[in-house]
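Title: Prediction job returns without error message
Component: structure pipeline
Severity: low
Priority: P3
Assignee: unassigned

Description:
Job completed but the reporter wants confirmation the result is attached to the right record. Sequence as submitted:
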Amino acid sequence: MSERVKASVLLLVGDQAEITTPHRDHTDPERVPVERLIAETGIPREDLVGAKLVAVVGDDGELKRFERS
């Protein structure tokens, strides 16, 4: 069973986005490819920083999918 959690794009570093969730704060953000976020959410790169998202977390704890919140 998968869980849905609030996520936020903290910043972009090259081709990676740093994502915060209730499980990973700004001191240890999750890194996700920017292109993946653009493809899954439809949010343009220039609008990603600060974007509020919903992350779908799989049974293994990995972030499986992102959606606009």
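Comment from assignee: result matches the submitted record. The two ends are 20 Å apart (CA to CA).
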